[in-house]
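Incident review: delayed structure delivery

Summary: a single-chain prediction request sat in the queue longer than the usual turnaround. Root cause was a stuck worker, restarted by the on-call engineer. No data loss occurred. The affected request and its eventual output are reproduced below so the record is complete for anyone auditing the incident later.

Affected input:
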Amino acid sequence: MPKRKDINSILIIGAGPIIIGQACEFDYSGAQACKALKEEGFRVILVNSNPATIMTDPLMADATYIEPIHWESVEKIIEKEKPDAILPTMGGQTALNTALSLDKKGVLEKHGVILIGANREAIDKAEDRQLFDETMQAINIETPNSGIAHSMDDAFEVQKRIGFPCIIRPSFTMGGTGGGIAYNIDEFETICKKGLELSPTNELLIDESLIGWKEFEMEVVRDCEDNCIIVCSIENLDPMGVHTGDSITIAPAQTLTDKEYQVMRNASFKILREIGVDTGGSNVQFAINPENGKMVVIEMNPRVSRSSALASKATGFPIAKVAALLSVGYTLDELKNDITGGLTPASFEPSIDYIVTKIPKFAFEKFPQADPKLTTQMKSVGEVMAIGSNFQESLQKALSSMEEDLNGLNPVVEMPYEDHEDKILYELTFPGPKRLFYVSDAIRAGWSLEKIYNLTKIDYWFLDQIEEIISLEKAIQNKGLNTFTKDDIFSLKKKGFTDSRLAELSQSSEMDFRNLRISHDVFPIFRRVDTCAAEFATSTCYMYSTYGDMCESNPSKNKKILVLGSGPNRIGQGIEFDYCCVHASLAMQEEGYESIMVNCNPETVSTDYDVSNRLYFEPISAEKILDIIDNEKPEGVIIQFGGQTPLKLADILSEHGVKILGTDVDAIDRSEDRERFQDLINKLNLKQPANATVKNIPEAMDEADNIGFPIVVRPSYVLGGRAMQLVHNKNELELYLTEAVEVSNSKPILLDSYLTDAIEVDVDVVSDGNNIKIGGILQHIEQAGIHSGDSACSLPPYSLSQEIQNEISNQAIKIGKELDILGLMNIQFAVKENDVYIIEVNPRASRTVPFISKAIGNSLVKVASKAMIGKSLDDQKFNSNLPEGLSFVKEAVMPFDKFPLVDPILGPEMKSTGEVMGIGINFGEAYAKAQKGANKSMPRSGTVFVSVKDSDKKYLDKLVPIIVDRGFKMVATGGTASYIKEMNYDVRRINKVNEGRPHTVDSLLNNEIDLIINTTEGKQSIQDSAAIRRTALQNKIFCTTTMFGAFAIMQALESKETDWSYNTLQEINT
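Output delivered after worker restart:
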């Protein structure tokens, strides 16, 4: 069936900011859909609030709106663009829920817009827990014994029937949000209350516990002619009880019998047909009781999902692209398989002759108060994927991709193991992010596989595989380096052992082992991902390394450039770096080079096989990169766009004679080494906050006296402000040095004077080696001391004088010239009383690059990449002029709602997972839009709670009159209330939490407060006021913890939503 002729324009709804449960995978799916539909001649309109994605590049769609994904905003876009159809299946739960809201509010009918990809009935049947249950019963497919609740009374009734433990899952949420496992009535009540609040339909499904059952997923695609295929089967290594997004998963499924697989396959097709998904990809999740083989269906997603991204990268089958084309009328047999060059149709089920392993990435170190145990609510922030010829190779490659200093199944427990039996027992019983390593240590400690199985319910097949790795490690520990034969090395490499791990086990260095391996002529080969287990030839260069006979890479003699990706998504290094890597690859192709991408993240656009000329799905480790360079022999390597991950390889690549494009490696060291950086600042006569590098506690105490408190402390060489803290006295400093970090000669600690009341500024610079230009100057809204990644920021600066902006530009250019920058550089400044201070310099791409690029209508990364290969800024006609009459605000999106025990206060350590962009005719409108995009609801009337630290009271002179002018009433704690009363304004005094009842938290719970302005400092004060911020978060009360944030809110309230402007990137940058 050819494409539909009744549709000319299609609105694609994106997923919005990166959050836990909905990450980069929707950049991949949205970008594929935009590209595919545009190529088919449809006018593609996109709405997405996330500036960090490739999806929101103006080249992807015909009309790109970076706007809040709320039905009211989308209606305004529908009114303006008049699309024929909406495709809601590419933007996760956010897009589905928005499409349903548009339908329920009558917007679709009013404007004559249809839903394609999934209709309302199909979405309801799949997402509404009760409807799904009834639908499964109608086709005789078992679901867990369960009940539906729309209130706490309903919930208690269901629980009485089902018993404990039970699993609570809210309808229409993602990543298990609001759900959990309850073992007692207190836990049950807490989870149900939260779940009812978070479900858009106030509906819960309460299931019997299936903890310990095996979990599987099927990625299914169906077209309008009822052709169905299974793209991939996925098995969870962790049994039921751990959210599939937090589980280690393996594709294809390893422990299903053929009969079980066929039953599951047929059930998947039956479910899709009954639910009514007639065009596109879906994900169906099953559980199997290992005792008797009983199978039940858990849920299905009528859309492209996180698992779809994994299945796409695992097989090479582009699910999102195919789903988009099916939604406009094509059938599977009409679409050609790109990977096989059209030799097979898309209706040909993928078949793979290798094993894929996905391992999730967690960020519990950022949230020490959070419960690190894994349950049915997703907590991971990213993931890695690896491909190997067998499970052991695939697993060990995935572990070495994690960016956690792992090179295999490294021990986590110190010997003797007998001293740690209780710890191992606890970690096996209650799953956490390191459970696999504790399983390995249990095997090292001599525990039987039967005992480990009974504690974990991890299938014996996987335990056997892990046991073999541990026994091989034991054998190696007694071998000297020179006793390894060629056969020894070859067989160990086939099992996935890294050079680094083998060197560690044989007490030698990684380079010594690499040289030994090469001297024995043991090299990896590269095989192609071809969707057909080598049945047909493939021209697509999507490859992975393994050890075997025939190499399939067939490198060309063309001039080529290697781009190193950014690895797994995590807090501090997110999707913005993937955006940079993709643009670098595209720039190289535009300039006639063959581009080669190396990355290990299955969620991203950079690992799409059609983005670069050649793709290697590999760990970004010294061993793998050097192997690829030996094979491809590129003219140069780009390392400055993937964040800290590729930069860490700078020295080792230089030592091996690899040409690194862009800024010299020595300049990177000059900017990151504290003493060399200080020399640079002094040479240029610039200012820097007083600082010191210390290697022990007495030295830290002495230097702290010289610098003066408050002081920002942090370990050297970190990304995302890891373990950074603001300390106010010697007690807090000593506590930090003894409890939070280790300080030694090899691990020095940095002390910096904290510039109170300073304005922080980010500047991105681009240089061709001669000409240096400012890409953008961003003023942070939160004052200095809040991590730059967590602060909202404005482009252009909303309150800095032109004189200060000029001085900042001059200083940035001075630094760029001194470091001989080639490519991109980011500098963070602080402005205090008209003095400009340098905070830090990063001679690489920063997380602000995509945001600035979208605002100026010019890709900074493309310009920088071309400059690296000799194309001057003048030749590229580069300019960074902002559109007239517009303001752009970037706002960070926090994951605090996933960690209810965490204090949602901003500080020097980065905690945000994503960002949104607001575009408006002034700063107030742009800031208001950014808040809405970040899902924060700003009150326009009611009562403001004000409690500020003494050093912030001076700001009340200006802030309080504005609050009153906006029509708010005020309540305040003692000192703040007295200050406001002295200003002759009405204010009601309210008790602090430790001053007796009723107190602030009581008022919050009674819905008596609508907006919170709460600034505090000092460890004790922060602890005392944490309950206020946590309660605000749980009750969705808008809260700011900085004074500059409070002023920004008041400015935002000047703009009315009904007056907001909606313009495409294409319109504002013409």
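Verification: Residues 83 and 811 are 48 Å apart (CA to CA).
Action items: add queue-age alerting; document worker restart procedure.
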